[in-house]
Amino acid sequence: MTAFSRFLQTRVGRVGSVLLICACTFFVHLGAPEVGLMEARNFVAAREMVAGGSWLIPTMNGALRLAKPPLPTWAVAALQTLTGPTDNVGILRLPAASMATLLVFFFWGLARELTRWLPGEEEEPGRTAWLAAVVLASSLLLVTVGRDGQWDIFSNAWMVGCLWLLVHGLRTGALGAYAGAGVLLGFTILSKGPVALYALLLPFLVVYSTRVSPRPVAMSRLGVGTLLFMVIGGMVGGFWPWYVWSHVQPEVLAVARVEVASWGERHVQALWYYLNFPVFTGVWALIALVSLVVPYARRRAAGYVPYMFCLGWLLLTLVLLSVVPEKKERYMLPLMLPQVLLLTGLLRSWETTFRSSAASRSDRVLVRLWGGLLLIVCVALPVLMLVVALPGFTRAEMPFWLVSCVAGILGMLTWWFGFRTIKPAGLMLVSVILMGSVMALLMPAYPQWENRKAEAGIERMQDVRGKLDDKPYRWYSLTTLHIKQVWAAGRTVPRWQPDTTRLLATPIVIINSQPTVSAAALGKQLPPITISKVDSFYVGRDQKSEQLFVFLVRPLL
C-alpha cells in the first residue's frame, strides 16, 4: 500500500480529497458562462431585496415574485449585503456552488448510513461512502447544476441532508436527528416548494419501508420522531407560504394556477425522456450502465451497497419523474443519487477482485472497455480543440499545449492502469483528474465559445448601460422586457403604464421595440415633454435578433 493510499484512508485525507474535487468542479472559473434565464430571475430578485425591497414578499423587476420560494434568493441577497451590490456572476454563484458542495457531504453521510452494516465495510470501513461522494462530486449533471445560481441545487441539497438525518434517526431513534431532518425539510420547501418531496423524499421512503430496506427501523421512538420531523418541517417550510397568503392572497392564487397549469403545458417531453440518465454521470457513464445490468452487477455490488434498495429507489424515482409532462435535464438530479450508489458498489467490487486476482473474464473486458473510452477521450481532446478552433487554444498558444500535456499524461496513466496492470482504482483516479482538468483548463474558453457566432460591433444592453450608468435616470419599457435584459440593465425597468406612471422633474429612459415613440403612447395627462432617440441595442448576439430602441424623455420646464 502506497503512502497516498494510506493517506486516503485517514479522515483528513478523505475530507481533503472531496473538498479539492468540489473546488475544481464547482468553484473554478465560476463566472465563465453568461447568466441563464433562471439565474437572471434569481439575481434580479436578490438585487431588488438589497436595494430596499421586501425580503418576505420579493419582487422581480418591480412585480411580485411568488412563483418560487425565496431561500435561494435570500442566500444571494445576504451575500451581497456582505460584499456590496455586484454584477460579478462568479460571486453571485457562490451560494449555489457552496450548496453543491454541501450536497456532496450530505450524500457522503447518507451513503455511510446505508452501507455501514454491509460486508464490504469490514475490508475498508467508510471507503464505499467516501468513494460515492467522490463519484457524485465529479458527475456531469451535478457539476452543471451546481454551477448554476438557481433553485434546484438548493432544494436537492437540503433534501439529501434531510434523508441522511432521517435515516440516522430511523436507525438510532435519536430525536435530535429527527428534529434536524425536520429543519432541513423546511429549508427544502423554502427552496422550491414540494418538488424535492415528490422527487426525492417520496420514492426513498416508499422503498425504505419495504423488505429491501438496508436495516430495520428503531421502533422505540418512531412515532415521536416522525411527529417531531413533520411538525418542525411544516413550521419551518410553511412560514413563508403562510405569510404571503395572509398578505397577498389573490396574487398567490393566481400564481398557483399558472404554476399548476405549467406542469402539463410547458417543456412537455415524451414519457421516455429521462431514460438516458446514466449518460449524465459523465466520465462514469459506462459503469453506470453496467451497474443497471442486474444479473451481472447485483452479486458483485451487493456486498458494498444495498443493491436492490438502490435499484428500487432509482426505478421509482424514474417513474415518478417520467409521469410528469414537464421535463428538463436538471430535473434528473434525484436520479443521480441511487445511480451513483449502484456504480460505486460495482467499482468497489472491481477494486477487491482485481486486487486479489479473482476478476472474471467479463470483469476484465469491462474494465478494459472503460480504460479504452478514457483513452479515446484523452487522445481526442487536443484534436477537438483544433477541429472546433476553440478560442485561445490554437497551436500557437500555451493553453493548447498545457491541455495536450495533461491529456497525454492521463492517456499514459489510462493505458497503464487499464491495459498494462488493470487497476480499477487507477482508472478512478484518472476519471476524477480528467473531469477536474476539463473544468480548470477549458472553462476559461467558454465565454468565447458562447460568443463564437456573435457579430462584432453590435451593441447590447450592457453597452447602453455603460453610457447611461452615471445619469440619475429612471428606466421604463413600453414592451415586455426579457428578464435577462433587466439583469443586464443593472436596475429595475418596469413596464410604463400610461396615465398612471408619474413623470418626474428629471428625465427618464424609455425602451421600445419600435424606432419611434409618440407622446400619446406615454399617456394623455403628461406635461409638455420632448422625446429623443439616443441609442439602440440587440437582444441577441447578431442583427437577426430583436432590436430595441432607447429614448430619453425630458419634461419641458
UniProtKB/TrEMBL annotation:
Residues 68-212 form the Glycosyltransferase RgtA/B/C/D-like domain. Keywords: Cell membrane, Glycosyltransferase, Membrane, Transferase, Transmembrane, Transmembrane helix. It is found in: Cell membrane. Its main location: membrane. It comes from the Bacteria. It is a multi-pass membrane protein. InterPro entries: LipidA_mod_glycosyltrf_83 (IPR050297), RgtA/B/C-like (IPR038731). The keyword Transferase applies. The chain crosses the membrane at residues 12-32, 90-108, 128-145, 157-181, 193-210, 222-243, 271-297, 304-325, 331-348, 369-393, 399-419, 426-446. This is Glycosyltransferase family 39 protein. It comes from Hymenobacter guriensis.
